[in-house]
Task: inverse folding
């Protein structure tokens, strides 16, 4: 078996960032990718996808955004071009189409078994992310066979859907943007709204991300956040970078004909059943929206920063009568897009570092198991850990730990 100092599982931006710093530390390593590098960006984003954070936040290792629109939002093709440049810069040692089937710790080394080969390593970095197993509820199997069903990672554009209305289930970042994409294309959209919060795109003359960066919000480590590790369970705020960036206001969509419902609870063979919580979840999303703006107001008052006049969002629509059920046949729905997230799937990692929900237990990516690390997870250390803005800091930190561990491993080998 070929032996390495470090095996990196996952060939996205996180895995390549670790490779970049491993090369600087002269650690022998290999990146294992079950598909192709940056596969999720290439194949699991819809055609009109854009970043929801401004381009200037793209700060991969020694590879910042260098285009002419730092305050804009790259579209899917531009993101792929940016990532391809990073891939070429790193030039990582990679085995593509090499799916990891099992990782075990055998006394002193990790044995990494793939579908095509087996390797050993002193240390392992799991960079496969947490968006692994698409969530689709069991009752989806009871929907009629003529109903087209997709998960959000399979959605590309309105043209791939059947003629007729579409039900989007979930209103997080993906669900709300896909619903907007379909709505703008003239589709009759039914949206089952979840409990995702929302935020403003621009407030008091600047992008909200600019304000929060200046307020040092994105530098808060998870152990200093008011929710501590609980913040990792939070749903991302919905907003969009489409057409230069704007708010996503589900209430305005309702005024324009989109039909909003509460959380989808099930299907009885004829009718879809929803919670009667639509007004409450919309109110809660607006409460978060206004709360973030109020914190910006407070910062402006204290700092004296220049800004335009403060404002407060007031609802433009309220559901007059919440509907708890919907007859599927009468609705005209011919397609369903499930956008209710993913669950982790680390069955191939035979090391006891997971909690009861299947998530790895770690401190800044470092587990209690010697030589096992994670990167690219939401709030691994800060808000930016799962994004282009924070993975550099996480990778540098982890490789420093890796390097120290490798020195210790080499010393132990020599002593033996």
Result:
């Amino acid at each position: 078996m070929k032996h390495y100092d470090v095996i990196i599982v996952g060939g996205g931006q996180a895995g390549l960032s670790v490779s970049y710093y491993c090369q600087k530390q002269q650690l022998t390593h290999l990146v294992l990718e079950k598909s192709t590098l940056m596969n999720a960006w290439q194949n699991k984003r819809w055609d009109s996808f854009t970043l929801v954070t401004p381009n200037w936040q793209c700060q991969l290792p020694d590879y910042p955004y260098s285009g002419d629109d730092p305050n804009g939002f790259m579209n899917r093709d531009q993101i792929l071009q940016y990532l391809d440049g990073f891939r070429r810069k790193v030039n990582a040692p990679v085995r593509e189409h090499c799916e990891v089937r099992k990782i075990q710790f055998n006394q002193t080394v990790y044995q990494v078994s793939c579908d095509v080969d087996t390797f050993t390593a002193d240390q392992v970095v799991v960079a496969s992310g947490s968006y692994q197993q698409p969530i689709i509820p069991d009752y989806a199997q009871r929907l009629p066979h003529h109903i087209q069903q997709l998960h959000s990672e399979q959605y590309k554009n309105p043209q791939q859907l059947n003629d007729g209305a579409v039900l989007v289930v979930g209103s997080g970042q993906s669900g709300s943007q896909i619903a907007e994409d379909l709505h703008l294309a003239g589709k009759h959209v039914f949206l089952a709204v979840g409990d995702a919060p929302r935020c403003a795109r621009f407030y008091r003359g600047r992008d909200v991300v600019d304000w929060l960066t200046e307020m040092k919000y994105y530098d808060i480590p998870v152990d200093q956040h008011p929710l501590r590790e609980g913040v990792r369970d939070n749903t991302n705020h919905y907003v969009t970078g489409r057409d230069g960036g704007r708010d996503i206001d589900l209430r305005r969509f309702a005024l324009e004909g989109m039909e909003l419902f509460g959380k989808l609870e099930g299907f009885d063979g004829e009718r879809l059943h929803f919670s009667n919580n639509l007004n409450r979840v919309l109110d809660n999303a607006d409460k978060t929206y206004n709360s973030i703006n109020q914190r910006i107001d407070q910062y402006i008052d204290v700092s004296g920063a220049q800004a335009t006049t403060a404002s407060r969002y007031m609802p433009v629509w309220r559901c007059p009568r919440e509907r708890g059920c919907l007859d599927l046949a009468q609705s005209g729905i011919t397609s369903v897009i499930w956008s209710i997230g993913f669950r982790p799937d680390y069955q191939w990692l035979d090391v006891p570092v997971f909690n009861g929900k299947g998530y790895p237990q770690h401190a800044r990516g470092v587990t209690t198991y010697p030589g096992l690390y994670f990167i690219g997870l939401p709030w691994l250390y800060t808000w930016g850990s799962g994004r282009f803005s924070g993975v550099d800091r996480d990778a540098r930190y982890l490789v420093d730990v890796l390097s120290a561990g490798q020195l210790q491993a080499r010393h132990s080998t020599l002593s033996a």
